[in-house]
């Protein structure tokens, strides 16, 4: 028999009617967001995490992703210049 915690977690994984509006809003704003990320963000908000905290989390993720991308490009340029 599933525990109450497992049951509530399973419920959080399912979008309620109207929650796909979040995905549609992102699409209309020109923001690429896969359905899994959209679902995860809705889950955080449903858990009572403030939108400001979610926003700050997204900023940190974006910053780290940008840093990794810059580092990769720098490494590629260095590698290319050594081969010339």
TrEMBL record:
Cellular component annotations (GO), alphabetically ordered: centrosome; spindle
Keywords on record: Cytoplasm, Cytoskeleton
Protein name stated in the entry: Uncharacterized protein
Localization: Cytoplasm, Cytoskeleton, Microtubule organizing center, Centrosome; Cytoplasm, Cytoskeleton, Spindle
Top-level division of the source organism's lineage: Eukaryota
Signal peptide: none
Record bears the keyword Cytoplasm: yes
Lineage: Eukaryota, Metazoa, Ecdysozoa, Arthropoda, Hexapoda
UniProt key word Ion transport: no
Family (UniProt): Belongs to the MOZART2 family.
InterPro entries assigned: MOZART2
Organism: Ceutorhynchus assimilis
A Pfam family of this chain: MOZART2
Region span, Disordered: 64-84
Main subcellular location of this protein, as a coarse class: cytoplasm
């Amino acid at each position: 028999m599933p525990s109450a915690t497992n049951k509530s977690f399973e419920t959080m994984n399912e979008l309620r009617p109207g929650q796909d509006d979040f995905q549609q809003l992102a699409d209309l704003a020109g923001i690429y967001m896969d359905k899994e990320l959209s679902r995860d963000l809705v889950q955080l908000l449903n858990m009572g995490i403030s939108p400001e905290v979610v926003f700050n989390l997204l900023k940190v993720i974006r910053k780290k992703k940008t840093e990794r991308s810059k580092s990769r490009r720098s490494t590629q340029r260095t590698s290319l210049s050594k081969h010339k």
